[in-house]
Write a structure and sequence with these properties.
- There is one protein chain.
- By secondary structure, the protein is mainly beta.
- It contains two helices and 34 strands.
- A six-stranded antiparallel β-sheet has the order 23-34-25-30-31-32, with no helix packed on it. A six-stranded antiparallel β-sheet has the order 24-33-26-27-28-29, with no helix packed on it. A five-stranded mixed β-sheet has the order 4-3-2-1-20.
- The longest helix has 11 residues.
- The two termini are 32 Å apart.
């Protein structure tokens, strides 16, 4: 199955349509991609694996695709690492993680099977010496019905995240039970033999199942990430049916539990799920699937032959009980053609040279004398993705309802898959943003990274204007860079 997959990719990759393919965001060569898996730094390179079905641009039996990078920007496609070719994973090699130990790289993943209507999910290992070619462990599964506590549903028991603390290995697995969603902790001395410890966290009325857990350290605090299904929506938070959340606190390796804060939303936009974080020599870094379940699959509907992309990798910090996210430092090496605009805006204005669909904008806007301030991205006379700050409400609106090719959401979503509002009041009336556009995506970082909003958009050809408008007066500074990754 691995040979077949790699031969298919080699034969078909040049047929994919690149109209909406990002230039500095990772996308598959052909076929469907969702969750990032196995994000790890190994032998001087970052490795990213991902849920992958090469044969169509819709979800299918999951393989693990693979790519490597020196700087988290320029990625090299590697051969497919895993295929569903064993009895314990014949329904798919589902999400998981990686850990480097000495000169070995270990992948942990969920094997999925479904026979006669009975679904079983188990945790399994594959390993490699060269970081490219992987062998599945003959003793798989390493965590299955024999290791899990009574009451854990084998039908929803997935996404192992493995890390080391104090000479022991720990595995986090997302599941549910007894009216709560939770993530369980397992412990091992050797990566191959595991015992259940406890629930690292469990909470009632907090979604159906917590998928894709991660645990990293940023500025001395443990950051726990997971992706709950059907997390209860609030006025401005958790308005997608599938959310991505974080909690800050302290993990106890003796008990496997974590003292943690309440959950907050990791990204306040429309397309951010299944985030995975890892540690490198610089701290903690995170990447996520820049998409969402049960949304219009635009590139599939257009017959482009591929679907799925990842966010910019984000460096994680913590401050005053909040998670801060900034673009990983490697992207700045690819900035080109800098230009700067300073103006006092009163009404509406485009600025000559401030346009395009592959760029970075650094914006500083004094909004203390305005009622609202709007930036229209990917704009022409009838289309635009609107980013609006409402000074009276202290909110930011991200609206793609008039962006071009329509995107609809799940009927259960408060956002409708079209617009998100986030609570945000800048200090001293100074609204600072860093915006990254890449043909079909927008990622907006506010302030020090205390709010990020991400969305996919599919504008018509030529919709590359960037227009600024306000009610009142705004003192505005804009720095624009092109971004070129060849």
């Amino acid at each position: 199955m691995l040979k077949r997959a790699n031969e298919y990719i080699a034969a078909k990759k040049d047929a994919a349509d690149g109209e909406f393919r990002g230039t500095y965001h990772f996308t598959p060569q052909i076929g469907w991609m969702n969750d990032p898996n196995g994000f790890v730094y190994f032998r001087g390179e970052y490795h990213i694996f991902y849920q992958y079905y090469p044969y169509d641009s819709v979800w299918g039996p999951m393989h693990w695709g693979h790519a490597t990078s020196k700087d988290l920007v320029r990625w090299t496609h590697q051969p497919v690492a895993l295929a569903p070719d064993e009895d314990y994973d014949e329904g798919g090699c589902w999400s998981g993680s990686a850990i480097a130990v000495g000169d070995m790289l270990y992948l942990f993943y969920t094997g999925h099977t479904e026979r006669d209507g009975v679904r079983v999910q188990t945790q399994n290992i594959a390993y490699s010496r060269d970081g490219v070619h992987f062998v599945k462990y003959e003793g798989n599964p390493v965590v299955g019905p024999a290791q899990i506590p009574e009451g854990t549903p084998v039908a929803d028991f997935r996404d192992p995240y493995v890390f080391e603390r104090d000479g022991k290995y720990f595995m986090l697995v997302g599941t549910l039970g007894d009216g709560v969603a939770k993530v369980q902790t397992y412990r091992s001395d050797d990566l191959f033999h595991w015992e259940y410890m406890s629930d690292i966290l469990s909470r009632a009325h907090a979604g159906y199942c917590w998928e894709c857990p991660s645990l990293v350290t940023a500025d001395g605090e443990n950051v726990f990430l997971c992706s709950p299904v059907d997390y209860p929506a609030e006025k401005y938070r958790f308005c997608n049916y599938n959310s991505c959340v974080y909690a800050l606190g302290k993990f106890n390796p003796k008990t496997g539990k974590m003292q943690a804060s309440a959950f907050d939303e990791t990204d306040g936009g429309l397309d951010f799920y299944a985030a995975q974080a890892t540690q490198d020599g610089k701290g903690a870094v995170m990447i996520a699937w820049m998409n969402m379940w049960n949304r219009t699959n635009v590139t599939h509907e257009l017959g482009h032959g591929w679907a799925g992309s990842f966010t910019l990798p984000r460096r994680l910090h913590t401050k005053d009980g909040k998670l801060l996210q900034t673009p990983a430092e490697g992207i700045s090496a690819y900035y080109t053609d800098e230009m700067t605009i300073s103006d006092t805006l009163d009404g509406t204005a485009p600025y000559e040279g401030v346009s395009g669909n592959i760029l970075r904008l650094k914006i500083s806007a004094d909004v203390s004398a305005c009622r609202s301030f709007t930036i229209s991205l990917f704009a022409d006379d009838t289309h635009g993705t609107m980013l609006t700050y409402d000074a009276e409400e202290g909110t930011v609106l991200l609206d793609r309802s008039e962006s071009g090719y329509p995107v609809a959401g799940d009927a259960r979503e408060v956002s409708e898959g079209k617009r998100r509002i986030a609570q945000y009041r800048p200090e001293n009336g100074l609204l600072e943003m860093e915006i990254f556009l890449d043909k079909s995506s927008a990622e907006i970082f506010f302030g020090e990274g205390e709010l990020v909003m991400t969305a996919l958009v599919y504008p018509p050809e030529g919709a590359e204007d960037i227009r600024f408008s306000c009610e009142g007066s705004v003192r505005l500074s804009v720095v624009k860079n092109g971004i070129t990754v060849s």
